[in-house]
Request: fold
Amino acid sequence: MKAKILVFLLIAALVLPATVMAQDKAEVTLWFHSGQGSERDALSAQIDAFNASSADYTIVPLEVPEGSYNDQVRAAALAGDLPCVLDFDGPNIYAYVSSGDLIAIGDMMDADMVSDVLPSIIAQGTVGDQLYSLGQFDSGLAFWGNRSMLEEAGVRIPEGIDDPWTLDELNAAIEALAGVVPEDGYVIDFQFTNTGEWYSYAFGPWIRSFGGDTIDRSTYETAEGFLNGPEAVAFGEWFQSLFDNGYATATPVDPSADFMEGRVPLSYVGHWMYPSYSEALGDNLVLIPSPDFGNGAVTGMGSWNWGITSSCASPEGAAAFINFLMEPDNIVAMTEANGAVPSRLSVLAADERYAEGGPLYIYVQQLENGIAIPRAQTPVYPAISTAMEDAINAIARGEDVQSTLDSAVDTIDSAIENLGS
Reply:
């Protein structure tokens, strides 16, 4: 009996220190948006790897629906319930910093790592002269095309950013493609099953290419004359005509399947569809740069990134996790999952997909040559995002373009007036 007790005590002596160590690890809460499955899987694997390797911290994640993500962040901030580590779309940083919800992280990040990060990601995460966020990737936005359908219709396929389609050429391409789509198809998929930020990210650049904008970027004091001026109205009327003529639909059954199964020759969407699109179409998939609607080609940029909230009880643990996410192997794993532009220059240089002649090279060209433009850098950006979602959907439904854009301006200008109140 004494021997059994001795064995038990020896086992306890070995087990208890490990248990105590596990219990002593500080919990670091984390929120992330529910993006595509492969992206979630990559993040989950990285959280597990960090938790297994860290002797001091444990990441406790919570997945939040993407469509209502910003609303839930705002509600949590008001209630004092924000997590330590916050995942958020790039342009919302100005609102979060203005509200005092984020802390500067520059001094907590590895200096060599920061020096290797894309300038666009550093710019996205910087407010004033302080760095508040970093992300594993930047974004790419353009047309994905079905090469065989484009060739059947006799449509020229641009080779790069130096020869984009003009408005007249795009209109001619749309008409030609309408002649080759099957009876159950249409010409352009605009991803109208998406909600939230998609509409500002996707169509704000096109309004700018028409000569308008979502706000006066010289002062950030009004949207009047920019989002409802003649140039923006011209965009809205042209965009509405695509739906009126049946070239696009606001109610697709399954937009991803429509393109992948050959019912739609053009899909206007971002990098995140590359893994599934390339698997479905193979060499028949082609990336086409954003068109020039008259004032230069313009496309979206910026993406989801990580910051540390001001209510975090363990900012050191949060910083350790962000530094971990920014390690090259983790960026490779994430960008292989979502097709995004790697945020570290060294990783980007080693990725053949983004080299000249690679399938995603146009995204690099757009980022490096000023075609990719940040979304409005203002604390009222959430109001711009909401106004754009409402306006683009209303225009697609056939509502009056001028009054729709006037209403969007009222929403944005009201938010500007309420700043600081």
In short: Residues 19-134+304-339 form a domain with the D-Maltodextrin-Binding Protein; domain 2 fold (CATH 3.40.190.10). The chain has a mean pLDDT of 91.
